[in-house]
């Protein structure tokens, strides 16, 4: 009888330990505070890197990943602060030494909106592309521009790749007012747009070049069906809902007004993508 009781205790202990150390992705999402922290930052999950950023007040951040991941260096905690350099947003992480003995401080260029967050540590694709919820930006399928800026051997053409998540690749046009983008929609998704020239090591390029201020979005089949949007002067992604306006799949984005650059007369658009509930290719 005594042996049976001991066996029952051991079985219960094993079940409890198994539940405690289960894979987080199998056990459900990491619990997070219901409130939104300062500057509207909250929890973001990057499924590709298997990492979750948990922002909590006051200015604390923790990074988690699966216990089965080989990237144990990603698990750390510390504080964060935002900084703007010539209008280009950065986030600085100051990691607690006991959680990150090799890297105490990290600096990322950050582009985000209410649905996702991109973190860059160079002028390529995001080092982390994490989302809050189920929506994520995906490249447009087809796009062309009314004109393209050419400087020597550099052509700042509007292509799905150039208008994707990669920074330091922009569509640019001389002057900008009256320029157009012709885009084919593949689904009834909102539009997300990041304006200006975004550069990690030369953040002044955002203010040095012109940015769209006011745009008109019209049906490519009937330009009498349109609405206008005034954009904020930030490279952060701005969401534009099209389905509420009843526009068809083919649209035209026309630049009506710009904010001039302090050095160049080149109007730049960093990114135009769709906000989808499907994973990006």
Structure description:
This protein is mostly beta strands and 281 residues long. The chain has 3 helices and 20 strands. It has 2 domains: 29-131, Lipocalin; 136-276, Sandwich (Jelly Rolls). The strands form 4 sheets. An 8-stranded antiparallel sheet has the order 1-2-3-4-5-6-7-8, with no helix packed on it. It is globular. It has helices spanning 2-20, 24-27, 205-208, and strands at 43-46, 51-56, 60-65, 76-85, 88-95, 105-112, 116-120, 128-131, 136-139, 142-145, 149-151, 154-156, 171-174, 180-184, 191-195, 211-219, 226-230, 238-240, 250-259, 266-276. Strand 2 (51-56) and strand 3 (60-65) form a beta hairpin. The model is unreliable at 1-41 (pLDDT under 50).
Tell me roughly what share of residues is in helical segments: under 10%
* Radius of gyration, taken over Cα atoms and rounded to an integer in Å: 23 Å
CATH architecture of the largest domain: Sandwich
What is the number of E strands? Answer: 20
Q: What percentage of the residues does DSSP assign to strands (E)? A: 35-45%
How many helical stretches? 3
Average pLDDT over all residues: 82
Let me know the CATH homologous superfamily of the largest domain. Galactose-binding domain-like
What are the SSEs and their pairings?
Elements: H1 2-20, H2 24-27, E1 43-46, E2 51-56, E3 60-65, E4 76-85, E5 88-95, E6 105-112, E7 116-120, E8 128-131, E9 136-139, E10 142-145, E11 149-151, E12 154-156, E13 171-174, E14 180-184, E15 191-195, H3 205-208, E16 211-219, E17 226-230, E18 238-240, E19 250-259, E20 266-276
Antiparallel strand pairs: 1-2, 2-3, 3-4, 4-5, 5-6, 6-7, 7-8, 9-20, 10-14, 11-12, 13-20, 14-19, 15-18, 15-20, 16-17, 16-19
